[in-house]
């Protein structure tokens, strides 16, 4: 059974912390901490024996919700009117010690049949580790609470964005994609040493590697999908790839039809920005039936290769013709190895613009253009 009010009024104009506090104040201003301590003004009465939750189980985990249940002794069970749920982000040993700590979220729920659903994008983020503990409570006539001891602490991790969430991102990206420009090659910039290493150690074939954690925090491809990054953007005035790059002065160019053709599938992977005016769209090209294709089928929205707002492959007069969106920067991941003999490697004449690199770049969580109403 789902608990009403645990979503904390998703459309409320108040800030996340204000919203949590406002809802909690309906039942209690302060709750005991996990050690049973409380302030003198907490409005919580002295401990009386109430059943302590144990054998806590977390299930049906999504990027911004979960179900929770537990067992408890039948003694005094009929006196329970509320549950107190203490939810905290698990501490990261590598986190910035100067960063403000996340405000703990203490939820108040009426005693309903278990399991119950805890839902709320204000306090739950995707792919994030949390700890949770539970108290049972009995509200007294004078408004005070009698509470049990805290349960044991349970750890769990929220899930990635689902296809539903990614489709919401996709629809937002379509709004700003802009008109389509013709192109003919995919390209990949790296340092000279990278290409030397590929020739010497990988038999001339660039190998897929695991995608970094750039983009949306809930993206199911970050840290999981293996592929090779390519670009296809062109300069408006020349119709050719730009001569500048943040990734290296040597560029591998390959004819578009070698990577994107009727024997490949196209998927939408992510939409994000890095505190800048321009936005990035990640697309995935996977040969039909390949491991990358199977991975994407289960997790990503598939696009019609002939008709979408970002990247198309159509046949005109018996020749494959390619177009890319003008107003977003496309990052294309190809999921299979690519042999250097299929294209050319040459030095570019422009600059290496390191400020434009997206390596492990964090998404701007405040941007209204590329965020959806779930954890960022």
Automatic annotation (TrEMBL):
Specify the Fibronectin type-III domain's residue ranges: 52-161
Gene3D superfamilies to which the protein is assigned, alphabetical: Immunoglobulins
Q: Which GO terms describe its cellular component?
A: cytoplasm
Q: What does this protein do?
A: May play a role in the development of the central system.
Q: Which family does it belong to?
A: Belongs to the PHYHIP family.
Q: Please report the name of this protein according to its UniProt entry.
A: Phytanoyl-CoA 2-hydroxylase interacting protein like
Instruction: Supply the source organism for this entry.
Output: Pipistrellus kuhlii
């Amino acid at each position: 059974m789902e608990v009403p009010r645990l979503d904390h009024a998703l459309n409320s104009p108040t800030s996340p912390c204000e919203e949590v506090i406002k809802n909690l104040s309906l039942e209690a201003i302060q709750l005991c901490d996990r050690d049973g301590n409380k302030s003198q003004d907490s409005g919580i009465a002295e401990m009386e024996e109430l059943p302590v939750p144990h054998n806590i189980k977390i299930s049906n985990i999504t990027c911004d919700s979960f179900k929770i249940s537990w067992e408890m002794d039948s003694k005094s069970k009929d006196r329970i009117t509320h549950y107190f749920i203490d939810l905290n982000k698990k501490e990261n040993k590598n986190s910035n010690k100067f960063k403000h700590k996340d405000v703990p979220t203490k939820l108040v729920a009426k005693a309903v049949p278990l399991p119950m659903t805890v839902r709320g994008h204000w306090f739950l983020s995707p792919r994030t580790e949390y700890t949770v503990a539970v108290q049972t409570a009995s509200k007294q006539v004078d408004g005070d609470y009698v509470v049990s001891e805290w349960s044991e602490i349970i750890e769990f991790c929220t899930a990635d964005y689902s296809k539903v969430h990614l489709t919401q991102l996709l629809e937002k990206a379509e709004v700003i994609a802009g008109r389509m420009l013709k192109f003919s090659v995919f390209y990949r910039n790296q340092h000279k040493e990278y290409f030397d290493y590929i020739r010497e150690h990988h038999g001339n074939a660039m190998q897929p590697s695991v995608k970094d954690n750039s983009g949306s925090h809930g993206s199911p491809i970050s840290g999981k999908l293996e592929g090779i990054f390519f670009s296809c953007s062109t300069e408006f005035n020349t119709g050719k790839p730009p001569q500048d790059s943040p990734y290296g002065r040597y560029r591998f160019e390959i004819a578009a039809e070698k990577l994107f053709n009727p024997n490949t599938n196209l998927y939408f992977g992510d939409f994000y920005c890095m505190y800048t005016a321009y936005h990035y769209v990640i697309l995935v090209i996977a040969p039909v039936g390949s491991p990358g294709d199977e991975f994407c089928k289960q997790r990503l929205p598939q696009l019609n290769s002939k008709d979408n707002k970002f990247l198309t492959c159509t046949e005109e007069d018996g020749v494959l013709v390619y177009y890319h969106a003008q107003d977003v920067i496309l990052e294309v991941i190809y999921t299979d190895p690519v042999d250097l003999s299929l294209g050319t490697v040459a030095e570019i004449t422009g600059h290496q613009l390191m400020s434009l690199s997206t390596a492990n770049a964090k998404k701007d969580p405040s941007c209204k253009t590329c965020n959806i109403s779930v954890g960022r």
